[in-house]
């Protein structure tokens, strides 16, 4: 039997998923607290022991091991562009889609105090953009010079005006900077091109960052680390939506991942206007888009969730339970490993999950604005119209453990008539009950057909 | 090298026909046209010009609110570092029939380099542009 071991080095848990490739089945899953700070292999071995325990009676041998990682703070990146709404935003979107954690986004010509700030945030990679192809090059060249002078130790990916490449290359060569030239994130005004930069980020992650984080030396045991964990989730979403060479995809969809620290939303959709006669405005959105809400989470970010939502919004989802909402949120953000111990506490977690889904999707989708003119109303759309997506898929602990995951996910749907937010209207709702999205994203790198079929089989309708 | 011109219609104005004609005329005359289309704020013109390193911005206003929409444009350009940007404006700039000299003066006072009355032939304006770009280089 051909078995594959999929490993996710998370910030809190090391998660293992064993897959039978022939039967296209999940054989077992196991997790154990991560031990990245000490010896990463410890946590892995503990999880492996738990996994093997479950597989005692099944003869098996892992012919392949694939890993993804968000350990040691994940892939930490800084995005630099020229205009905040244009190349800086395009750079940020490219990095997010590569599974990065964005520490900061900077624009225009940088100065020394900003360089200091970037340095103090300790990024793994800096993405340097600015200017359309043939457009402004002064800014990106200035910023390249400053980076070479003040942050020579940080690897840089260049995704800006192609007319500035030669000059940037010679600046970086002179100072021996580790860098990689990619394609422009915004080759023409308002046109976004994220895929080449995402690929470059992934390569650099595999070749350099893994090593810097002390994971490289154990690759013999754990197999190859292929990508940051969030990139694996996006990959799974994309395979599911688009299908593979053999399989027909499910169509446009959204994945919501509600975690302890952040809530991620992934959409695989063109986002074109549903309604006729709408003018599109602003920077184009990537087809595979990931957004990360750092203030919406179940534990570490419970307090900031309350700050963002307010007590009333959380209360809306509480039916029976009576809580001092502010107090409970603050308490949870201090006790990050707290598990709900009563039906009331479960209900509170569900309410927080619903609020996280509601706000995160609201921030992810586009907005429709109307202008009244003597000639009637005219509409313009900024961002993605996700009203007609076919599936909304949920993943994350709160959903898996909840008795009403459907309620939590439906909080993200469009509910008011005439709301300006272009949220999903009536998608089918699926739950990642076995928690395999990231593992299947990994598997899809080598075995897309199997990954697709396993996902389809294991995602549950709710 | 081709000169880059940002072209668009300002405000809540959705008159799209003239914009297409201007795009065609400028492109045919050998310019790189960054056409941002209808319904743009001043910031959208300025951001586009910044990223693309444009030499001139052509603003259209057809629906009569041009004066309000264009106020402060020059100052914002300067604020954004587009110091000697060539700013042209044209279309139906004001409501109803008003003395052209007055209208032109008001827009020039606002900082526009050239102001065009309704029905201007784009060819004339392009001649002016070529002249202005030459003096700008000097
Ligand atoms: C078609 C039209 C519409 C269509 C537009 C369809 C579309 N999406 O394009 C619709 C029905 C939607 C419409 C709506 C309105 N319209 Co209308 N519309 C017209 C009409 C009949 C033709 C415009 C046109 O396409 N002209 C042809 C093009 C080629 O010419 P152009 O736009 O003037 O552009 C040329 C020149 O002006 C010049 N130019 C323009 N900009 C610039 C800039 C520079 C730098 C330079 C050098 C040159 C230049 O070069 C262009 C190419 O040759 C005009 C009347 C007219 N005959 O002009 C009214 C007109 C422009 N509309 C008018 C009005 C008031 C409106 C409305 C407010 C209400 C209404 N009465 O319907 C709404 C506004 C909607 C909005 N929010 O923008 C008025 C404006 C009055 C004013 N400024 O004093 C006009 C003049 C009619 C009138 N006499 O009352 N309109």
The pLDDT mean of chain A sits at 94
Strand content of chain B is: 15-25%
Task: Supply Rg of chain A.
Answer: 22 Å
CATH superfamily of chain B: Cobalamin-binding domain
Radius of gyration of chain B (Å): 14 Å
Based on Cα principal axes, name the global outline of chain B. globular
Q: Approximately how much beta-strand content do the residues of chain A carry? A: 15-25%
Give the count of structural domains of chain A: 3
Biggest sheet of chain A: strands side by side, in what order?
A: 14-12-11-17-18-19
With helices defined by DSSP (H or I, 4 residues minimum), what is the helix count of chain B?
A: 6
The CATH class name of chain B reads Alpha Beta
Summed up, what is this model?
The complex is a heterodimer of chains A (462) and B (138). Chain A has 462 residues and is an alpha/beta fold.
List keywords for this structure.
heterodimer; A: alpha/beta; Rossmann fold; 3 domains; six-stranded mixed sheet; five-stranded mixed sheet; B: 138 residues; alpha/beta; five-stranded parallel sheet; 6 helices; binds cobalamin
Write the layout of secondary structure elements.
The complex is a heterodimer of chains A (462) and B (138).
Chain A: E1 3-9, E2 13-20, E3 25-33, H1 40-54, E4 62-69, E5 75-80, H2 84-97, E6 100-106, H3 112-120, E7 125-128, H4 138-150, E8 156-158, H5 165-174, E9 179-181, H6 195-212, H7 219-222, E10 224-228, H8 229-242, E11 253-258, E12 263-268, E13 278-281, E14 288-293, H9 302-309, H10 311-315, H11 325-334, H12 343-364, E15 367-373, E16 376-382, E17 391-395, H13 397-401, H14 405-410, E18 428-431, H15 437-446, H16 448-458, E19 460-461
Parallel strand pairs in A: 1-4, 4-10, 5-6, 5-7, 7-8, 8-9, 11-17, 13-16, 17-18
Antiparallel strand pairs in A: 1-2, 2-3, 11-12, 12-14, 15-16, 18-19
Chain B: E1 4-10, H1 17-28, E2 32-40, H2 42-52, E3 56-61, H3 66-70, H4 73-79, E4 86-91, H5 100-109, E5 114-116, H6 122-137
Parallel strand pairs in B: 1-2, 1-3, 3-4, 4-5
């Amino acid at each position: 039997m051909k078995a594959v071991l999929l490993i996710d080095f998370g910030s809190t848990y090391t998660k293992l998923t064993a897959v039978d490739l022939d039967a296209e089945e999940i054989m077992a899953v196991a997790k154990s607290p991560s031990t990245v700070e000490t010896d990463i292999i410890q946590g892995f071995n503990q999880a492996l022991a738990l996994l093997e325990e479950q597989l005692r009676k099944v003869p098996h041998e892992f012919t392949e091991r694939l890993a993804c990682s968000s350990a040691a703070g994940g892939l930490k990146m800084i995005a630099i562009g020229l205009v905040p709404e244009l190349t800086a935003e395009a750079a940020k979107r490219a990095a997010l889609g590569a599974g990065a954690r964005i520490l900061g986004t900077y624009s225009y010509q940088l100065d020394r105090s900003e360089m200091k700030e970037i340095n103090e945030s300790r990024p793994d990679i800096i993405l340097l953009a600015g200017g359309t192809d043939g457009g402004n090059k002064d800014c990106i060249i200035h910023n390249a010079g400053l980076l070479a002078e003040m942050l020579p130790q940080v690897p840089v990916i260049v995704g800006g005006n192609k007319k500035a490449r030669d000059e940037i290359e010679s600046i970086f060569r002179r100072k021996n900077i580790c860098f990689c030239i990619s394609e422009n994130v915004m080759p023409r005004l308002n046109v976004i091109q994220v895929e080449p930069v995402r690929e470059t980020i992934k390569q650099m992650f595999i070749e350099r960052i893994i090593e810097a984080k002390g994971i490289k030396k154990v690759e013999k045991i754990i197999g190859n680390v292929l990508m940051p964990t969030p990139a694996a989730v996006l990959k799974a979403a994309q395979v599911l939506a688009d299908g593979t060479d053999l399989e027909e995809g499910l169509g446009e969809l959204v994945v919501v991942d509600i975690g302890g620290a952040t809530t991620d939303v992934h959409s695989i959709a063109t986002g074109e206007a549903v309604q006729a006669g709408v003018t599109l405005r602003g920077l184009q959105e990537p087809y595979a888009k990931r957004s990360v809400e750092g203030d919406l989470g179940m534990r570490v970010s419970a307090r900031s969730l309350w700050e963002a939502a307010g007590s009333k919004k959380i209360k809306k989802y509480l039916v029976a339970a009576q809580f001092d909402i502010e107090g409970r949120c603050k308490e949870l953000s201090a006790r990050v490993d707290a598990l709900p111990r009563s039906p009331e506490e479960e209900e509170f977690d569900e309410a927080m999950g619903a609020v996280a889904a509601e706000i995160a999707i609201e921030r992810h989708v586009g907005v429709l604005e109307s202008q009244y003119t003597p000639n009637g109303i005219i509409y313009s759309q900024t961002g993605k119209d996700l009203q007609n997506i076919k599936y909304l898929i949920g993943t994350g602990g709160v959903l898996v453990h909840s008795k009403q995951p459907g309620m939590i996910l439906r909080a993200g749907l469009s509910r008011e008539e005439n709301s300006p937010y272009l949220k999903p209207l009536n998608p089918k709702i699926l739950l990642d009950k076995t928690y395999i999205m990231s593992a299947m994203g990994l598997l899809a790198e080598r075995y897309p057909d199997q990954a697709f079929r396993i996902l389809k089989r294991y995602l549950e309708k709710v | 090298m081709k000169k880059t011109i940002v072209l668009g219609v300002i405000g809540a104005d959705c008159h799209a026909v003239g914009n297409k004609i201007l795009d065609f005329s400028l492109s045919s005359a050998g310019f790189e046209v960054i056409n941002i289309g209808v319904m743009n704020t001043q910031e959208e013109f300025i951001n586009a010009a910044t990223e693309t390193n444009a030499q001139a911005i052509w603003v259209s206003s057809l629906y009569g609110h041009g004066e309000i929409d264009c106020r402060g444009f020059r100052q914002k350009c300067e604020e954004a570092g587009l110091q000697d940007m060539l700013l042209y404006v044209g279309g139906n700039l004001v409501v109803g029939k008003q003395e052209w000299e007055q209208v032109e003066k008001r827009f020039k006072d606002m900082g526009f380099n050239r102001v065009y009355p309704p029905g201007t032939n784009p060819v004339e304006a392009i001649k002016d542009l070529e002249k202005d770009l030459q003096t700008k280089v000097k």
